[in-house]
Amino acid sequence: MTLDVFTDDDTEFHTPDSADHEWAETNSFAITIPEERVMAFFYVLVRRGLGVMLNDVSVFGGLAGSRAELLYLDSRQHLPAAQSLARFSSASGLSITAKSIRDYSIDYVGLDGVEAHLDFAGLMEPFDTADPDHSPMVKAHDWSADKAPAHRAMYANHFDLTGRITGTLTIGGRELEVDCVETMDHSWGPRPEMEMRSGSWMHAHFGPDFAVHWITSLKLDAPADTASRLRHGYVMENGQVYGLTDLRLEVNRAEGFPMSIDAVATDVRGTTTVLHGSAVAGGPWSPYTSTVLTAAMMRWTMLDGRIGWGVVQENIAYRQLNKLHARRWTDPLKVGAL
Questions:
Q1: pLDDT at position 49, please?
Q2: Superkingdom of the source (predicted)?
Q3: Residue 65 covered by a domain
Q4: What integer pLDDT is reported at residue 148 of this predicted model?
Q5: What is the predicted pLDDT for the residue at 274?
Q6: Residue 154, pLDDT score
Q7: How far lies 315's CA from each of 13, 23, 93, 184, in Å?
Q8: Total structural domains in the chain?
Q9: Where are the alpha helices (DSSP H) in the chain?
Q10: Alpha carbon distance 74, 174 (integer Å)
Q11: What is the helix (H) or strand (E) element at residue 200, kind and residue range?
C-alpha cells in the first residue's frame, strides 16, 4: 500500500479560528538505546486557544517504580505557545524542525548538562488513522473533529510514522550514540483532558525494513486476553505499509506496569506476525495529570528468532479508575488500585 495523504504543510498548525481551551496539537518522538537500557521521550502539546505549550523530556535508564527513579525529567506545563509547529525553539531548551512531513530534527539543551541532537528520517509515508485506505479498522462514520465524540476526535487528525533516528544523547557526563528505529506521531483536534479514554500505543521494530505498530482501546475490567481492542495499526515491510485487520494482545502487568506482552497481528494481506515482548526499561510517564501513563522499552522476539525493540505506552484514565476503585474511608480496601 502506498500512502500519500499528508503533505509538508501538515507539519504546521491546523488551528481553526474557533479553537478554544480544548483544541490541541501534538508531536511525539522517542528514542531507544538498547545496549544502555535507555529510552527517552520528547513530547510537545500546544493549546493555541490558551497560548500555552507543554514540553516534556523524560529519560529512563531501567525499570523505574516512580518518577524519582528516572534518569532525567524536564516537564513544563505552561510555556508560551510556539508560533510555528514546523520550526520552533522553546524556553525549555527544546527545538524541533520539520524538514518535510517525513524528516525532522530534534535538539535539546536542558538542565544538568543533558543534551540531545537527533535526526528523524521517515521510512514510509505517514499512516492516516482516519482513512479507510490506510486503516481497515476505520468505521463508516464521520471522523471530522467537529462532529465525532471527543475521544474519537483525538484520532480524527492523526498520523503515525516509523523512521530511523540518529544522533547523540548526553546524560550523566556521557555522550551516547543514538541509532534506532522508532515511531513518532502528530495529531490535532479537540483533546478534553477529562474525556481521554484508556488505551495503548505500541510498536516493535526489527531494523529499518520491518516494523509493527498498533493503537488499542483498553477495557479496564476485562480479562487480560480480551481487554485490548485494535483501533488502528500497520505492518511496515521494506517501505510498504499494510493495515492491520486483527490483533490479539495479552499484557502481563505488575502494579499497572506492562512487564510482558504477547501479540498476534494480522494485516490486510492475511499475513500473521507473532511477537513476544519483555520490558527492559520504563516506568511512569506523566504529561497529563488526568491519566496514569506507563511506558516501557520492550525487547521483542519473533518466531523466526529475530530480535527487535520498541516503545510501549499505556494511557489509563483516572476517570475510569475512579469508577472502579473509588472508596470512602469506611469502605474495604480494594486491592489492585493503581
A1: 96
A2: Bacteria
A3: yes
A4: 40
A5: 99
A6: 57
A7: 25, 19, 27, 16
A8: 1
A9: 150-153, 318-325
A10: 18
A11: strand 199-205
Quick one: which H or E segment has residue 265? strand 257-267
* Cell, residue 229: 481492542
> Is residue 145 predicted with pLDDT exceeding 50?
no
Q: Which of 144, 67, 60, 70 is CA-nearest to residue 312?
A: 60
Q: Are 156 and 131 in contact (CB under 8 A)?
A: no
Given a contact cutoff of 8 angstroms between Cβ atoms, the answer to whether 310 and 39 are in contact is: no
Distance, C-alpha 137 to centroid of its chain:
19
- The answer to whether residue 265 sits within a structural domain is yes
DSSP lists the bridge partners of residue 31 as 40
d(CA 90, CA 316): 29
Domain range for 313 is 23-82+92-325
Residue 4 has pLDDT above 90, yes or no: no
Tens digit of each residue's pLDDT (9 = 90 or more) over 291-309? 989 999 999 999 999 999 9
Which DSSP state fits 47?
A: E
- CA 54 to CA 58: how far, in whole Å? 13
Cell reading at 180:
534506532
Query: Which residue do the cell numbers 510498504 mark?
Result: 240
Q: Scanning the structure block, which residue is given the C-alpha cell 496514569? A: 292
**Is 258 within the bounds of a domain?**
yes
Residue 111 exposed, middle or buried by CB count within 10 Å (0-12, 13-18, 19+): exposed
Supply the DSSP symbol for 255.
Answer: T
φ and ψ of 205, to 5 deg: -120, 130
Residue 333 lies in a domain: no
pLDDT tens-digit map of 89-140: 999 999 999 999 999 999 999 999 999 999 999 999 999 999 999 999 986 3
- For 177-205, the pLDDT digits (tens) are 999 999 999 999 999 988 888 999 999 99
